[in-house]
Design goal:
By secondary structure, this protein is mainly α. The chain has a domain at 36-66. It is built from 2 helices and no strands. The longest helix is centred in the first third of the chain and has 23 residues, at 2-24. The termini are far apart.
Length: 66
């Protein structure tokens, strides 16, 4: 039972941390969301599912955020 309570507390802290980060960030967006643009994660060389940028291009979402 003690392990369950500790687990719930840590999961609650993780959700609270994510919520605070979203609240504190401009427009509630995470930075660096083009993870599929990484050559380690995208071995086939497909376009980013988030912004459509190819692996050789910079994230298009960051350009429109300014």
């Amino acid at each position: 039972m003690q392990l369950f309570i500790i687990s719930v507390v840590f999961i609650g802290l993780a959700f609270a941390g994510i919520a605070i980060k979203i609240w504190a960030k401009k427009d509630g967006e995470f930075s660096g969301t083009c993870a599929s643009n990484s050559p380690f994660l995208n071995e086939e060389g497909e376009a980013c599912g988030f912004c459509g940028a190819m692996p050789s291009e910079q994230c298009k979402k960051e350009e429109t955020a300014d």
